[in-house]
Design brief:
heterotrimer; A alpha/beta (428); B alpha/beta (482); C alpha/beta (250); A: 428 residues; alpha/beta; 2 domains; ten-stranded mixed beta sheet; 22% helix; C: 250 residues; Rossmann fold; six-stranded mixed beta sheet; four-stranded antiparallel beta sheet
Chain lengths: 428, 482, 250
């Protein structure tokens, strides 16, 4: 049973999502955007099965997940907002960060203007599934000229009690000259198969700035699909950082629509894939207006039999003069059995633009490794130093603050290079 | 408004090397046949083996067709209308020293600013081989170089004095069957430069050759061969100019470089053949085959070129990276203006283990010119750990020129690491206005922007030539924005 | 300082400015606000001499001389500085080299000696500190790879170095986050003085909380339709521009 408001327009929207998903079916690897991602794990999963009405979660569990330096935290358990576990007292007056379901109950017309409008489900099967079955998600409403100082954390936790799939729907609305930094954290139980299918819609007003670090660290049996889509106003700035660590198969896609002059986006990311993980990143940047700028940097560190993928599309539409687009994907393979697929592409319908893309796939540099060994550094540390250096090229784009530093440490720990990082910090 | 008019005035600069020197020449009548080849060979007093080589090449050429894949359009060349040999008439046996060189020729080089008078030069910075039409007229500093064991002479002298070296290496990198123009060159080449650096020797000065086409209806087919023996180093520069003429002139040269173990060759070109006028009348057809073989382990060949001349350019200086850990580099600035067409680039063939190559290509198109970057990177199955970095940038001046990028990548070894970056941009009114608004005038602004674009390549040129290249670019650019 | 009288300007035959009249006295900071397409950027470009703008009638006097008679680089040398809305990248040219070329072109014009590299770098480093710019950016290529905030700070640095008497700031605040906006505003405020006037063109009222103007002019449909003090900006943020449209038509 959904706790959502039963407004007819919402019912119609959800019915349309369901019809579209049923018509489209699960995405297949024949579709260019999904060619490297194994949706077969979702086959046979009842994506529409109802989850628990309310899941319990210890306060300690949340405390362990929280990052330092964040000023507030919204918690979602099995796809539903938990007021009890959230800590939103520090938000400035006028800024709303909380439950989408609650916002739909309180001010449905305000939500309606954005829900399903930024990321329509047409032709997008997983977005359609989310639209059909979402119960709740994050609602953010920052009014004009309001700047939230300090990052706000949003935790999406899946518990043992969760249904086969959760579909959080997040809607973020920033007014003119508003500013916000968010950190999403995705986590779930180990040793259990479950699916997360999230959609985040972002409406950025003129001159607004949103920074969003998305940390995917799901359990090892998870299939995680998260689509973010932004519609950007004039002079607005979107900065996303997609850090992928967990899950059996995880995919984070970002589409930025630079619809007005002066809009810019930075889509960055880092993925650390080991074991048999498949970590997928897909981006689309749509330059529709003059003087728009995009920057992308995705780094991949891939070990064992894992697969890391990056597919990036940049469109520069007719009339988008003085556009400046850069796209870079670098991969480091740590084992001969590891695979990186990289496919950056540009589609340019306008001259008088600047666009570039690049991709690299390589191993650790033997010469550098040997150099370090010859100076007495242990083989483990030498590898750690080099891998961390590679990761830091991407991590430098996370920005500043204690939360960013904590994430760098989490990456270093996963790479087995924490000692190296600590030594570096002491020297600095 | 103002910026454009100023720029337009600037563009009217003429081709400064476009003069003609009136000297008496010994020229073979136009046409190509086995008899002509025998005649050339006889005039040069060549040994039998070289004549055989030429005839073999000629017969191969007859079987070949002119390539059409390049992105250039030109009137078909009538190979029977070209004279294949022209030499300034020598007094007696040819000049023994500078004093015996025709003063008119000396004047020509002086006018071009090329130092061939040893006395007038600062103590031995550059040794020069001056090639006038088909023959080398003078090579400076031969004695000084000989002390170091370096052989630097005209190709004709090399055939006479060092036949064993020439026989061993001629055609070893670019076989006479390689392509249509290389075959033609092998059949009719008349002169060029020869360099041999013995084992362990670091050539004490820059070597350089200045090519000059002077005579009318003459093709220039020079051949350059540079062999760097184990552990040696040489930096070599070639420059080229031609008079301004309404007819097209054919230049089909072959350059072969061989680097043995631990040897390094740095080969720089400042090419300023006559490009034709603003309507595309006249100009040199520059169909050149340049290839270097890194035969030895840890050897290195580096091509740097600044190309501003020629009506049509068809040129791909390449590296065959055979030795393990060998390195190939290609740094290029190509500027086309008016009706010039250039299809140029490079090819890096990775055979040895851990071979590395770097390609940096900067194309500047102005006027109604047309430019294509054609670059190939081939990683063979044997090339474990090979790496390539390619950066290819195009700058468009105005809206009537075109720039295309055609990369070919073939990888047969999974451990290879390749990076490719490409950009196309326009020198925009915005950039110009930005400079003007900060108080710079239009000429300074354009030069600042274009030189900035080329900086990565100029950095690779020997110091003296970097300045020259920069000046040349500024000359060629005049009046291109508007 | 600046006297614009009944200025009419067309772009590609289309009238954009339609009788703009504006007076800026020495030392004054005047804000120009207006909705998209009202002619704000056109005004900035006409003042600095960008190509493509046709002045069909009217006049601009700058320090008593006919500004329209001067070429773009001459205006710069005379002391008109434009902080660009979209600062332009010049790859391969270092920021320091570019700025020194500009500073010396301006100095020679003003009858001053050229600055040698040492003197120039010393001055540049001091000014960079004032706008909180990373000193590394001096060696980097002009605006290439700069973030939005760094580009705008670089504009203010150039302004400080070129010492103009009239600075036109064209949407210098657009796309900046709060921290960058504060740094840029501090840099601009430090350059306020009795002999320097500023024309601050902006889309967003937020800027005017940091650079407090002496006057606010509203540009609508190619004309100044109303002028007032700094409180006018707040009113515009509240009410938008539509309530002024009647005046524009009248």
């Amino acid at each position: 049973m959904s706790r959502l408001t039963t407004a007819p327009w919402l019912g119609a929207l959800k019915a349309e999502g369901r019809a579209r998903f049923e018509a489209l079916g699960l995405p297949s690897t024949k579709a260019e955007a999904w060619r490297y991602f194994p949706t077969r794990a979702l086959r046979g999963v009842d994506l529409g099965a109802a989850g628990p009405e309310a899941s319990a979660l210890d306060a300690d569990h949340i405390a362990a997940l929280r990052l330092p330096g964040t000023i507030a935290c919204a918690v979602f358990v099995d796809g539903r907002f938990s007021a009890e576990r959230s800590d939103l007292a520090a938000l400035p007056a006028g800024v709303t960060i909380g439950s989408l379901a609650a916002a739909l109950a309180a001010d449905p017309e305000r939500v309606r203007a954005h829900l399903g409008a930024v990321a329509p489900s047409e032709g997008a099967a997983m977005v359609a599934a989310n639209e059909a079955w979402f119960d709740d998600g994050l609602w953010v409403d920052v009014p004009a000229n309001a700047a939230v100082e300090g990052p706000v954390e949003v935790l999406f936790v899946t518990t043992e009690a969760a249904g086969p799939a959760t579909h959080p729907r997040n809607v973020l609305v920033l007014g003119r000259s508003a500013e916000l930094t968010l950190v999403f954290g995705w986590s779930g139980p180990a040793g259990r198969a479950y699916a997360t299918n999230a959609v985040t819609e972002i409406a950025l007003g003129d001159n607004a700035t949103l920074r969003l670090a998305n940390v995917e660290d799901e359990g090892d049996g998870a299939t995680h699909v998260h689509h973010l889509q932004a519609r950007q106003g004039r002079d607005s700035t979107l900065k996303t950082f997609s850090l992928s660590l967990g899950g059996e198969a995880a995919r984070t896609s970002v589409r930025a629509e630079l619809g007005a002059p002066g809009a810019s986006c930075h889509l960055d990311g880092l993925y650390l894939a080991g074991g048999k993980q498949r970590l997928d990143h897909y981006t689309e940047v749509d330059h529709q207006a003059p003087h728009t700028q995009s920057r992308q940097y995705y780094g991949g560190v891939i070990d064992d039999r894992a697969v890391g993928n990056y597919i990036g599309l940049v469109f520069i539409r007719e009339g988008a003069s003085k556009t400046d687009a850069q796209q870079l994907n670098k991969n480091l393979l740590l084992a001969p059995t590891a695979t990186a697929n990289a496919k950056p592409s540009l589609e340019i319908d306008h001259d008088d633009v600047k666009a570039s893309h690049g991709t690299t796939v390589g191993q650790l540099d033997e010469k550098s490794l040997f150099y370090l060994l010859s100076r007495g550094i242990s083989p483990e540390d030498a590898r750690g130093i080099l891998i961390l250096a590679f990761a830091q090229d991407a991590l430098a784009r996370l920005g500043e603050g204690a939360h960013a530093q904590a994430l760098v440490h989490r990456v270093a720990a996963k790479l087995g290079a924490e000692a190296v990082l600590e030594a570096e910090e002491i020297m600095a | 408004m103002s910026a454009n008019t100023e720029l337009k005035q600037l563009t009217q600069k003429r081709y400064e090397a476009g003069f003609y020197t009136d000297i008496e020449a010994d020229t073979v009548p136009p046409g190509l046949s086995e008899d002509v080849i025998r005649l050339i060979s006889a005039k040069k007093g060549e040994p039998e083996w070289l004549l055989d080589y030429r005839l073999q090449a000629y017969r191969a050429w007859l079987e070949m067709t002119e390539p059409t894949w390049a992105h250039v359009r030109y009137e078909p060349v009538d190979y029977q209308a070209i004279s294949y040999y022209s030499a300034p008439k020598a007094k007696g046996d040819g000049p023994k020293s500078l004093d015996e060189v025709d003063p008119e020729i000396l004047k020509a080089y002086e006018k071009l600013g090329i130092p061939i008078d040893e006395q007038k030069m600062l103590a031995g910075v550059v040794a020069v081989d001056a090639v006038f039409d088909s023959v080398s007229v003078v090579t400076t500093f031969r004695a000084k170089l000989a002390e170091a064991g370096v052989i630097f002479c005209s190709f004709s002298d090399a055939v006479k004095d060092h036949p064993e070296l020439v026989k061993k290496w001629l055609g070893s990198v670019v076989p006479h069957t390689d392509n249509f123009f290389a075959a033609l060159n092998a059949a009719v080449f008349t002169d060029g430069s020869f360099v041999y650096i013995p084992e362990g020797v670091r050539c004490p000065m820059e070597l350089s050759t200045y090519f000059r086409i002077n005579a009318m209806n003459t093709g220039q087919f020079e051949r350059t061969l540079i062999v760097a023996d184990k552990g040696s180093y040489v930096s070599y520069l070639e420059g080229c100019t031609a008079p301004q003429r309404d007819e097209n002139q054919l230049h089909a040269a072959v350059v072969e470089l061989v680097a043995l173990e631990d040897a390094e060759i740095k080969y720089s070109t400042v090419q300023n053949w006559y490009p034709g006028d603003e309507n595309g009348v006249g100009g040199v057809y520059n169909f050149v085959t340049k290839r270097g073989a890194c035969r030895g382990d840890r050897s290195k060949i580096s091509w740097t070129q600044v190309e501003t001349g020629s009506a049509i350019t068809w040129k791909y200086p390449s590296c065959i990276l055979q030795g393990d850990d060998s390195v190939g580099e290609f740094y290029s600035v190509a500027l086309t203006n008016n009706r010039q067409q250039a299809d140029t680039g490079t090819k890096m063939v990775h055979i040895g283990k851990r071979t590395r190559s770097t390609i940096v290509s900067k194309g500047i198109s102005a006027g109604r010119s047309q430019q294509t970057y054609r670059g190939g990177v081939k990683i063979l199955a044997s090339a474990d750990g090979a790496r390539n970095h390619t950066q290819c940038d195009s700058l468009l001046l105005g809206s009537r020129c075109t720039a295309d990028t055609v990369p070919y990548v073939e990888v047969k070894n999974a451990t290879a690491q390749l990076e490719h970056e490409a950009t196309t941009s326009k020198i925009s009114d915005d950039q110009l206005f930005y400079c003007l608004q900060r108080g710079l005038d239009a000429e300074d602004a354009t030069n600042l922007i274009v030189n900035g674009f080329c900086k990565e390549v100029f950095r690779e040129l020997p110091m003296e030539f970097a300045v020259e290249a920069q000046k040349l670019l500024e000359l060629s650019l005049e009046g291109t924005v508007g | 300082m600046l006297s614009i009288n009944d200025l009419h300007v067309s772009v590609a035959g289309k009238p954009i400015l339609k009788g703009l009249t504006l007076e800026v006295v020495p030392g004054e900071v005047a804000a120009i606000m207006g909705p998209n397409g009202s002619g704000k950027s056109t005004l900035a470009h006409v003042l600095s001499g960008k190509a493509g703008y046709e002045v069909t009638s009217g006049s601009i006097l700058f320090k008593g001389q006919d500004l329209l008679a001067l070429e773009a680089h001459e205006r710069a040398r005379e002391g008109v500085f434009l902080a660009f809305q979209y600062p332009v990248e010049i790859p391969g040219v270092s920021n320091a080299y570019f700025l020194r070329a500009a500073v010396n072109a301006v100095r020679v014009h003003r009858g001053l000696e050229e600055l040698d590299a040492v003197a120039f770098l010393k001055e540049m480093r001091e000014q960079m500190k004032r706008v909180k710019m990373d000193p590394k950016l001096a060696k980097r290529e002009v605006n290439a790879g700069f973030s939005g905030g760094e580009k705008k700070r670089n504009e203010i640095l150039q302004m400080a170095m070129l010492d103009p008497s009239l600075a036109v700031l064209d949407e210098t605040d657009s796309g900046l986050d709060i921290d960058a906006l504060k740094a840029v505003s501090d840099g601009v405020n430090a350059l306020r003085g009795p002999n320097r006037s500023m024309l601050v063109i902006t889309h967003y009222q937020r800027l005017l909380s940091y650079i407090v103007p002496d006057k606010v002019h509203v540009l609508l449909d190619g004309r100044i339709v109303t002028s007032g003090g700094k409180e006018l900006a707040l009113e515009l943020e509240e009410r938008g521009y539509d309530w002024l449209r009647g005046d524009a038509a009248a």
